[in-house]
Amino acid sequence: MRLLYYTAMRDELETLAPKPPLHRASPVKNESGAGQDGLELADDTVEYYAARLEALEPLTPAERSDFDILFAAYPESFDSGDARDAFTLAATRLRAPQTKHAYTRALETARVLAGLGMRSEVMAAALLHGAMDAGAVDAEEARARCGVEAASMAADAARLSLFSELARASADEAPLAEEDKRRFRAMLIAMTDARVVVVKLAERVVDLENDDVFHARSEARRRALAEETLATFVPLASRLGVWSLKARLEDACFARLKPREHAELARELERDGRRAAVADAVRDVAAALDANAVRVERVYGRPKSLYGVHRKMREKNARDVAEVHDVRAVRVIAADEDACYEALDALTRLPGYSAVPERTKDYVARAKANGYRSLHAVVLDARGRACEVQIRTPEMHAAAESVSYTHLRAHETEADLVCRLLLE
After folding, report:
1. CA–CA separation, 263 vs 312, rounded Å?
2. Cα first-last separation, the chain
3. Count of C-beta atoms within a 10 Å radius of residue 223
4. Each residue of 359-398: b (16+ CB within 10 Å) or e?
5. What is the pLDDT of residue 9?
6. Do 185 and 239 touch, CB atoms closer than 8 A?
7. pTM higher than 0.85 for the full model?
8. Is the distance from CB of 87 to CB of 127 less than 8 angstroms?
9. Residue 49: its pLDDT value, please?
10. CB of 52 closer than 8 Å to CB of 16
11. What pLDDT does 158 receive?
């Protein structure tokens, strides 16, 4: 039955009627190829609509400031005309009081995506999707003003929104089993450009982290949003290897679903002296690497996310945060692969520390299934406090922390195959 449900859902999405256009219908070609108005234009062409668009209102000082801040922080993500045009369109169409949250949501989604290093066409798609989702812009105008690629991605994002709503409605009637959730995630990736999935992940981060956007929903809808995120969007982020979004989604869900536990754990970690302990570990690791002349570019601390600590404590049935090994973490960016192993060797002989051999993982020689590469080791200081050390090259770090088009295309192709197999 579930298989039939997913097939029907897919078919419904593929046959959705578009929104009514904001402009007069385009001419229909006659047999000679000319339109009824004597124009030699195909139906719904970008040229037809572009020729009939009115000029947009100028940006207000506040809106121009919003764009200037984004451009100053992420020039490569907002340097194209399409990104600028999409921002102008979204800003001018979302000025009404009832669309204020939609403007905030679109703006902050673009900011999250820019932080991942996504390109300008993805920024344009995110901004367009915000305006289209609010019903302020239609697909024809989006294509005419901002280009086919960005508008197509925005339309795909709308399809995913509807798909999520349909799945949520089904789950309300009968909770989805784990296998059904897996099918749903595979279809989400396979139905569209994987960059669009990242747009939806970033949008969900904003939905959960931004108080104004989050509290614009009813209490029941807020809880459903967080639960759906943990069940579907977090695994999607993991599958695509977008680790920063995965961590942010997990922490936000933890804070929204269990605010008391979240606050208590935060206080416990502060009492445990986590920040000071991380600083001590960074200093000691950096000194050991320097003493062994290991070629490194950077050494810095990385406290584990609150949700990550909470999950580890639950898995270990731990009553104390000290039982979680990687509450403290240090990251080493080494010059190359040889330097990675030199750094690992130096860490095993770190004065005042003892290594935990069974906790050493080599994901450089043998990458994870999602392509992640790094060396992981756990060391204990003189007080018995555990610290996880991650060692990677700049290239490995860039692959783990940012989202490249090639990286997403590889996942997209694989997911498309998985989806077809699931639906056969």
Report:
1. 17
2. 14
3. 13
4. ebeebbeeeeebeebbbbbbbbbeeebbbbbbbbbeebbe
5. 47
6. yes
7. no
8. yes
9. 58
10. no
11. 86
Q: What is the Cα–Cα distance from 332 to 123, expressed in whole angstroms? A: 31
What are the beta bridge partners of residue 379?
Answer: 355, 387
What's residue 278's pLDDT? 82
Distance between CA atoms of 162 and 99, rounded to whole angstroms? 19
Residue ranges with strand state E in 314-385: 329-334, 354-355, 361-362, 375-380
What angle (nearest 5°) sits at the alpha carbon of residue 236, between those of residues 326 and 370? 65
| Mean per-residue pLDDT pooled into runs of 10, the chain (424 residues) | 45 43 37 41 51 84 97 94 95 95 96 93 96 93 92 89 64 59 62 83 96 92 92 86 89 96 85 73 92 95 81 77 71 96 90 87 90 90 84 90 54 42 34
Q: How many angstroms separate the CA atoms of 416 and 147, rounded?
A: 26
Helices marked H in 232-356 = 234-240, 243-257, 259-271, 274-291, 306-316, 337-348
Q: Are the CB atoms for 109 and 200 separated by under 8 Å?
A: no
Q: ∠ at Cα 139 (194, 413), nearest 5°? A: 15
Query: 318 φ, ψ to 5°?
Result: -80, 145
Q: How many residues does the chain have?
A: 424
Please tell me the predicted confidence (pLDDT) of residue 175.
60
Please tell me what DSSP assigns to residue 388. Answer: E
Nearest Cα neighbor of 82 from 128, 48, 44 is 128
